[in-house]
Each structure stands twice: as C-alpha cells, then as structure tokens.
Request: fold
Amino acid sequence: MNAGPVHVVIAGGGTGGHTSPGLAVATLLRERSKTCAWIGSRTGIEAQRVPPTGIPYVAISTGKLRRYWAWQNVADLAVNVPAGAVGAIRALRALRPRVVFGTGGFVALPVVFGAALLRVPVVLHEQTAVPGLANRICARFARRIAVTFPDREGKFPASRVVVTGNPLRPELRQGSRSSVIAQFQLDPAMPLVYVTGGAQGAHRINRVVGEALPRLIEHAQIIHQCGDNPTTGDRAWLEERRAALPPALTRRYTVVPYVGAELAGIYAAAALVVARAGAGTVNECCQLGLPALYIPLPGTRGDEQTENACMVERLGGAVVLPQSALTAARLADDIRGLLADPARLKQMGEHARTLAVPDAAERIVAVLSEFCA
Reply:
C-alpha cells in the first residue's frame, strides 16, 4: 500500500454507476495536482476499472446489504463486514486523507465508518433520484452530500446538500466514430444500435434481442454487450443465433461480453441506445445527447431504474419499454419506428442533454477542495 498522505480517498463501487463518477472526479483531481487513492472491493467493477488508470487501489473485504433473508447475510455480518471495517481503518491510517469521497455501494460503508472514527471529513455523491441504502446510512456521517438532482423530497438534511449533477468520464466525450466503424467492420451508411444490459449483461434483454434478431438487422446493425454469465449461457446462445443468420448479414450483429475503451467510439457512432436504466448509463446518454430506449430492471430498491428512465422520458429524451411488455415483436417494432424517424432521434438527444450537468466533476471537486486547503 502506498503511504500517505493523500488529498482524497475515493470509496465506492459494485456497479458502473458508483464507479464512473469517482473516476471522473479522480481525473480532474489529478489534473489539479491533488493526490487520490481508491478503496474498493476485490471483485467489483471498480477492481477492474480503477487499477489500470494508475490510481493507487486498496481492496478490502465487503458484505452486501440485502433486505431479504439469505444465508450470505450471516457470513457478511459475522466475517466480511467486520473484516472490511478493519481493512478500511488500516488503509485510512496509512493513506491519511484530508477527505473521503463516497460514491455509494456497500463497499463505501466501512470506509465511511472508518473515516468517522478517525475524524476524517466525508463527502458523499448520490447518482440517482432515489437514494441508495448505503448512502442513506452514510449520510449521517457526511459533511456534504452532492446530489445529481435537486432533493425536493428532503431525503437528506438540506443544510448539507449541494446539487452537482453526475460526472462523466472525460474520455467518453472523445470517441471516434471512424475507429469503431473500422474496428467492428460496420457499414457507415447504416444506423448503429448499441444494446447493453450493464457490465453483467441482462438475461431478459439478451434473450429477446436474440429472438428479434432477424427483424432487427433488416435495417440496422447492432453491437450487443451481453455479459458472460455461465449460468444463463446467453453469450454462447447469442453467438449461435448470429451463426444462423444468412452470411451476408452476420457482419451486422456483433456480440461482445464487455465493452471497455471502445465505449467512447460506440457512443460516437450510435444512432440509438437500448439499455437498462442504471444511473451510469442514463447519465452517459444524457451527457452525450444520445436517444435511448430504456428497459428498466424491475424490482430494484425504490424502483430506481424506472424513475431514472421516466425522468428522461418526461422531457422527451427517451422511450421507456417496461420489461412486463417486452417481447421480440414489440422490441423490433419500437426500434424500427425510432430509426425510421431521424429527426425525432435528434430531438430526443437534444432533450436528454438538458438533464445533464456538463461541469459536474468540477462542482464536486470544488466541494472536496473545501477540505483540502
């Protein structure tokens, strides 16, 4: 572990929505000669994304906050949570930060608790309109709570809330359409649809896209980020569906388990995004002015994804297709209808952009700088 002191310790992860804001803030901190380190889990998405950036990374044991009975709760409460707290305190003592920046997710909890015990100021960031359980617990220890949307319902103490928006990783604004066309051998004259269910993929979306594939590729080409879950076998099944297409059409459908650095170029080339409605994906589409067809994951805490998607739809920036109504025929009809109206797609993108705060990272860094003087 690199010894401190550092200006900022970032804590959070588990999903891209909790990881991307931290990466955006870290980039700006380093541009302004502020040192930072990250405390995260051993297996979450942050463990994959953060170390390659050169940010010092400390992995701790984590437990998951479940609101239902599961045997894993016993192991988490008895072993993982205490071990995570000890690891977080040990890391904070070594790093000696001036402030801890919590981006949410269960991995942030032990770090925030440790910061409170060591009297290190805490700043939180809440990405969604429906605060996560971890952040609602951590809020009682925070000096400042940065929110993406105005907290009109008073979910957090008003005296500590500041509206900052949700930062976008700067590299996503620098995508090259031509490089992605060359990389995936796309037809530059045909609209591109990017399908994503998040880093782990979405089983229901994967299967419906596979069933609708012959109709979808009649007038579009698709890059489909499907995850690689061995339990569902979706990736292999989708590859079989692709192989069954007429040879002249197979190039129009690309299946990838995970999208990394090429995401910026995919966004630059996409005419439409078909996705779940997690905070990270919705923020990226709004920041980049991309029209979207959202299929929210049902049953999430507070129906967070539906709220995210409907917020954009109300402004005309997206279309929401509930999973309960998702069929191959409906998906194909909705996508084809949107692609048939380029003027509408352009307008949707412009409306989506009105929800974005382009200088969100700068606003958060300004809050953190209050404690770094």
User: Anything to note?
Assistant: The chain has a mean pLDDT of 92.
